[in-house]
Amino acid sequence: MKNKNLIWGLFFILAGVAFILDRTGLLGSVSVWSVIISLLLVPVIVTSVRHLNFWGIFFPLAIMAILFDETLGIEKFTPWPVLGAALLLSVGFSFIFPYRYRFTQSKWTTHTTDNPAWDKSSDNGEYVRIDARFSGCTKYITSKVLKRVDISCRYSGMEVYFDSADMAGNEVELNVDVLCGGVELYIPKNWGIKVEADCVLGGIDQPNGAYDEKEKILIIKGRAKIAGIDITYV
Q1: How far is residue 120's CA from residue 174's CA, in Å, rounded to a whole number?
Q2: pLDDT over threshold 70, residue 185
Q3: Which of 163, 213, 229, 233 sits 20 to 30 Å CA-CA off 62?
């Protein structure tokens, strides 16, 4: 909270300075709104560098290049060439540094070869792992002692059925890593749904009543980038 207050405080101070400099003509041909938008993008870039979120690095840089193309003399590279380059760079670096190896805390659970949860993965065990790359995938989870499910879906379509599953306790953690794909989740009607996942150029479509207070809760964490996650009660 203190860090957020510091960031917003600095933003408003620098924005005020930018308005003053604009009125004095010290900004030259640079638009004050371009400066303010860039100030908003800087925290996004800093946070993305910290977590190696390449989409949050290259696209803000591309937007800043478009805003200052005349000043930098790069008009022939904007807007579509730099946006296309940002897209390709983001995809390329994301392949080289997969999401599950880059995040070690927060909303995504670390997945490494020595993680016992992955070693125990099975359709009817406590942990279930589902992967799809450039393909289609349908998964039926039958576990009656379910604790966690990890989904990695890249450039693929996936259907996951939980209607024959049950929780070991009152909560199940569902970690999603979806890139340029679509995931359909079929959830028992007596499960509540709590979404904590981040969506970048994507979204999670929840059924009516998903927020109603229920005894059993499915907590969705992770990230969906240029992707959609549809949830259906069955």
Answers
A1: 16
A2: yes
A3: 229
